[in-house]
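TEACHING EXERCISE
Course module: macromolecular assemblies
Task: Read the component lines below, then compare them to the predicted structure of the full complex.
Student: A.B.
Group: 4
Components provided:
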Amino acid sequence: MSDLIDQARAAAAFISDQTHEQHLDRLLWMMRTRRDEAARRVPEWEQLRDLASAIKEHTLSNLAHYLEMFESRAMANGVTVHWAVDAHAHNQIVYEILSERKVDLLVKSKSMLTEECETRSFLANRSIRVVETDLGERIQQLDDEPPSHIVGPSWHKTEQDVANVFARAYGSDKNNTDPVYLAGVMRRNTRPLIEEARAGMTGANFAVAETGAIVTVTNEGNADLSANTPEVRICSVGIEKIVPNNEHLAVFIRLLTRSATGNAITQYTSHFREPREGGEMHIILVDNGRSQRLGMEKFWSSLKCIRCAACMNTCPVYRRSGGLSYGSTYMGPIGIIMMPTFDVRRYSELPFSSTLNGSCTNVCPVKIDIHEQIYAWREVMEEKHQIQLVKKEAMIVASKVLSNPTLYRIAARAAEPSLNILPRIAIYNRLNAWGRHRDIPQPAREIFHDWYQKNRSSAVGKEAEQ
Amino acid sequence: MQVALMIPCYIDVFYPEVGIATLELLEKLKVDVAYPFDQTCCGQPMANSGCFEESRATEELFIKNFSDFEYIVTPSGSCTHHVRHKFTAVPDSPERRKVSASVYDLVEFLHDILKVSAFPWARFEHKVALHTSCSAIRGLGLASMSERVHDPKFSKPQNLLEQVPGIQFANFERPDECCGFGGSFSVTEEAVAAEMGYDKVGFIQNTGAEYVVSSDMSCLMHLEGCAKRLGTGLKFLHIAEILNGATQ
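Instructor-supplied answer key:
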């Protein structure tokens, strides 16, 4: 798993196809604009963000207490609660539940946690068919791609792309790109599977400690169908999804959808508390590195994330790179600060896929200081010797030049005609990387320093090397 | 009041006229300006690349050059942000704290410290697109940001430019979206950087603006490179040049 992810290279490939790049940028900027509009209609927006952040910090600081409360309430509701230390343990629990009941078809709704655990391929390798019922997730499954965005898994695809995928998978009309038609194709092909399946699986947006309930926030109703139609229901929950009670939950419900898409609320906010009559309900509480992250002084607060994707929508780099370029379960700004906790080597370049512009931090509904953590991860990469050698060497040269006034003057004056100095001063290595898409600045005939010396004779101090 | 002028390395080498305009402007405003001769850079290029070890000696030199001054003024929001908020490669010391507390971007120095209300020597009869850097907006708070929808709208660079007779402002789309420079990002991720720059140039061009003006020359270096490659006739000026009386 440790092959280095080269986000920059994948992003360049995405940009070379301007249709998709423009499509994604415009679509997500619209989401950002709609988020602004929604926030404007809530006068107490900033207080809500403060409150949401404080609730999450409190809950994460008392996580064991709330998890145990959740477990005991859920058990009292008739739910079977499982604990999974990592992805493998999670997948094994799911497999055992299904195989003991001889289930060979599982319908599931969108869950980033099961992407993180690679549950689908684990089950497929054990002859259990998994069908995604979320439209975007299903499109991605049929196209054999992971989600490119945590709210809209297939938002990088145009309507034509979707028509092509469905034509290939279902024999539908590839020239018909009408969204209503395409949604109809999805419905006709998925509903029978939901009726047939004996087990359904969902993730959770929130888990309420006081009631033992799981809450999902969706638009398509597929989570409710996947959860309620089959007799066995499995719900996978990251341990950071706990909120103390319904009053706290309301704060997040107000923020989540407004931050994600600009809608005041989704079509369905569903509370699942107990198994349906004659059925079973299993909740799997998954750690998979979370308690370790909770102990990381600079990075624990990324556990506050409620997966709204506002940081992705506003990120100018994400919008022009596409989510698949990050080669990771979580992408964009929040992905950059989460993924290295899973594999510091594989994701060591991700913190450099950012201009540190800070927009992400300022849209985040739970006030994670995302861009500050991106910056802090860069330092960690140096400490863990994960800075690429070519960059490290260039920085050693830059350090020698910039910390020595004499060398610096020589270098600065030498910038004239050959221009080989800029990259060592302001940026590093290959100047041709700058010049590929931009004209190169012309160095001045006389640097400021020399001008000053000539024109301000009363200057205090004298240059050492003169 | 004696003010130390800090000229960022890329301005020293590529845009000495911006350094000159900054100096002349401060002199016109009767500021006693000193230029510490052994200055080089603030250390940001290395720190920004994660190389804090390599940043240390340059930051130490900066402290040595500038810690005696009450004010340090530089025509760069980005360098100001680094010295004020990210000067951590060097160990904490009273001198380090002093330079971090004394450094000002030129715009904030004119706006908040000198409280300049007129530039009688300046006149600019052109339509300008004002680009304010992310460091200046979200790092230093020199203007309100679009993400904080309930905050009162303000822009210190615009307040200053409004004192210049003849100037007209162009309203362009996504005014506070990052231009794509991002320091080493501009070469490590050059395709994305350029695409962001092209978009910014396009939004500005749509308004019929003649000039792009900013208090950060690093953004302009990137945007000008994009604009030239696209074959636009857009012209680029640092805010100091206009406030100092440039007419074109």
